[in-house]
C-alpha cells in the first residue's frame, strides 16, 4: 500500500517506464510492448558510468585546447591554429560574431556541460535535499545543447574537404580535432547514461 504522503511514481507503483516511447509496463517486463525497447527500472551504475565518461571528456579537453585543431599550408608555409587562436584571429579581424559563436560553442558550452554533469552526479549521490525540478531542467538543457559543440569539428571537416590545392594551399586536421570530437561524444553519452529517475528516488527518502 503506497502512503498517501508520498508522490505516486512508477517505481513505487511497481511499474517501469520506457525511455523511448514512455509507455508504462509492469516492473518485471523485459521489453516494451509498444516499441520493443529493453526496459529497466534504473540504469545500473548510472552515476559511475557518467562520471567515468566525464573524466574521459575532461582529459580529452586539455589537448583539444592546447594542440592545433587544423594546419594551413599556404605557398609552402604552414600555420597551426588552436581553438582559442582562431577566436583571437577573428577578433583581430573584427569578426566579432564568428568569434563569439566559436568561443561559445567550443569553450563555454563544453565546460558548462561538464560542470552540469558533475553537479548532477554530485546531487544524485551526496545532497540530501535537492530541487528535483531544477535539476531535471538542467539535465534537459545539458542534453539539448551538447551536440552544438561540434561546430568547430564540422567547420574543420568542411574546410579539409574543400580546400585542397596541392602546393598552393591545403588544410589538414590537427590533433585537437579528434580530441575535441571525443569531448563532445563522451559528454553526450554521459548525459544519455545519467538516469534522472534516481533524482526522484530521493522523494521517497525525504
Distance between the termini: 18 Å
Question: How confident is the prediction overall: mean pLDDT?
Answer: 75
Beta-strand portion reads: 5-15%
| Helix proportion range | 40-55%
- H/E element sequence: EEHEEHHHHEHHH
Order of adjacent strands in the largest pleated sheet? 4-3-5
Specify the number of helices.
8
> What name does CATH use for the topology of the largest domain?
Butyryl-CoA Dehydrogenase, subunit A, domain 3
When the domains are counted, the total is: 2
The low-pLDDT segments are none
Largest sheet: 3 strands, antiparallel
CATH second-level architecture of the largest domain: Up-down Bundle
Protein model, in words:
With 206 residues, this protein is mainly alpha-helical. It has two domains: 1-41; 45-205, Butyryl-CoA Dehydrogenase, subunit A, domain 3 (Up-down Bundle), CATH 1.20.140. Helices cover 55% and strands 10% of the residues. The chain has eight helices and five strands; from the N terminus they run ββαββααααβααα. The strands form two sheets. A three-stranded antiparallel β-sheet has the order 4-3-5. A two-stranded antiparallel ribbon has the order 1-2. A hairpin with a 6-residue loop joins strand 1 (15-17) and strand 2 (24-26). Helix 1 (46-66) packs antiparallel against helix 3 and helix 3 (96-125) crosses helix 4 (132-145). 23% of the residues are buried.
Keyword list:
206 residues; mainly alpha; Butyryl-CoA Dehydrogenase, subunit A, domain 3; 2 domains; three-stranded antiparallel beta sheet; two-stranded antiparallel sheet; 5 strands; 10% strand; elongated
